[in-house]
Amino acid sequence: MTDTPTTPETPTHQTTPARTGDAETIALMDRLLEDAGVRPNTLQGKRIRSILHTALKLQADEATTGEVKLISQSLKELRYALKVFRPYKDTPKISIFGSARTPETHPDYLSAVDFAKKMASSGWMVITGAGDGIMRAGHHGADRQASFGVSIQLPFETNANDIIEGDSKLINFRYFFTRKLTFMWQSAAVALFPGGFGTQDEGFEALTLIQTGKAPLVPIVLIEPKPEDGGAGYWTHWDNYVKKSLLNHGWISPEDLSLYAIFNDTQSAVEHVLQFYRNYHSQRFIRDRFVLRLHRPLTQLQLETLSKEFTGLIAEGTIEQHQGPLPEERGEYPDLVRLHWHSTKRAYGQLRQLIDRANAFDQVNTA
Question: Cα separation of 198 and 134, whole Å?
């Protein structure tokens, strides 16, 4: 659904050696790449060579055994995780977070089961941790075939729940940071149910990455039953904290509140996630120009409306529309429409509002 390409790189035919002996080392690596079926002068080949070169530099840096182990294990974990997810790259996925301590009879558990079931029925897959509580509820609702288990090795919790245990889509991580990166990298949406430090950590990290533009915008839904249905007002208290302790002190902007939405019923939360992708597809930067990919074009009047309403996102000029890929996109998603403009590279809460506005426009061409 989303991607985060950086500024396009212009392939070069020669990499400048960084230090004495590097030219010979690069030649040796190029031969190794060729033996592995990789063309060294392609962009892909240069990046793989860069990984090899970085690993070799650890020796020159006098890295300790522990430092080498950290880098080696991290790379192994990310490579394997991407391998597991790759066959499902065209299926949208939602990450579900919440307490591992939630009993199976608790309203939060039942709500998570219902939400995951509805997302799976809408063609989505679910990513959760592999433990019990809300994690098991996500697997319970989506069923095993539509579930990924993203486990973390802990001293007191090492077993996967009975639904995902033994599945080929169960991934075991040693490090939290590689696990968290995988969650965000693979998710087209995030759902949070009540939980402890881990839930708060995952929620605030998702918000921080999106607020700062380090991750593409995705819908973030916070779900809990109404008090009369057994809910404890968890997200209401959380929302009050965010507004009183963060917004009122000026530590976040008013538009940042648009980055999440709170729901007391699962159907509304599902509809919110699906509405986000009603017309929006994905985003990327091309140098200072922000590119928003849409399924259907907007009218000229709608473009002018967006330019007037969201001046805080536009460094200069107006929002323009283009059918098909821009030259720098190298033919990506040829059937999609592009909105693009010179970006201020800030106010991602406003960008979320712009996407919501574009999704809500009547698609009948009246201008």
Answer: 12
pTM score = 0.90
Question: Is residue 241 pLDDT above 70, yes or no?
Answer: yes
Looking at the predicted structure, is the pLDDT value of residue 121 above 50? yes
- The 8-class DSSP code of residue 247 comes to I
* Closest CA relative to residue 125, chosen from 158, 84, 153, 159: 84
Contact status, residue 266 vs residue 228, Cβ threshold 8 Å? no
Residues in Cβ contact with 303 at an 8 Å cutoff, skipping those fewer than 6 apart: 318, 319, 320, 321, 339
Cα 349 from Cα 336, distance rounded (Å): 24
Residues 100, 194 contacting (CB under 8 angstroms): no
The Cα-based distances of 166 to 113, 160, 267, 295 in angstroms read 21, 8, 31, 38
Residue appearing with tokens 């990513």? 127
Residue-wise pLDDT for 333-358, tens only, equals 999 999 999 999 999 999 999 999 99
What strand order describes the sheet that includes 280-286? 280-286, 289-294, 337-343, 314-323
